[in-house]
Fold:
Amino acid sequence: MKHKNSHLLVGYWSRLRKGREVPDQTDIDPRAIKRLLSYTFILDCENPARPVYRLAGTALCERFGFELKGTSFLGHWESQSGLALASLLRQALKLSQPVCLSSIAATADNGMVELETILTPVSFNGGEPTRFFGMVQMLSDPTPLLGRSIAYERLVGSQLIQEDEPMPSSYDQNQPPPPPPPPSLRAHPRAPYLRLVSTNDSPAFLHFGSGDLLQKMFDVISRWRAANSEDYSRFV
Structure:
């Protein structure tokens, strides 16, 4: 994970468990994470192949240009990313582990941004884990999203998260703020101890846009790939 708020969310999820495999959705106290709420969401994954937003923060809805509640989580992902995500969601629920998604999102006019999505499994009313409490954070320059919304998204990396090692010393303490109109969220000054494990290969790239957009996607992914570890290096 790259963003401090991602570490903060997983640390909060871990504290809520209190010896259980996963916390319950009813344990979540919005006041404890009020600075993050605008970019959080609840995902219903009773059928991991058809995950649906049950709730979504206002700033997150602004990024996509419409109210997300009741819509498909996979609706804005390109097709092969959607297939990979369905499998990842199923695996994370089975193992009761959070998962970190790295993606490239594009606007209709070819603006590109890098996103990090955290999905933490939760139960509902004490049952088996069938939902995710999640959050989306911006990792790159937010300028392409100013006055625009995300049209589609492509998965470029994914990792399950395990809490047994400290953050690397090279962790960036100056992550860029999210784009307006919502106010920037200040990250918590102390983040929990986390480690990323079990990397999954991402799907093949599809020709789903114009030639210029295709080239920009490849350029962005190449830069992203060069800046990350070998765990992320195998995608087409």
Remarks:
- The two ends are 22 Å apart (CA to CA).
- DSSP finds four helices and seven strands in the chain.
- The CA atoms of residues 205 and 218 lie 9 Å apart.
- Confidence is low (pLDDT under 50) at residues 165-214, 229-236.
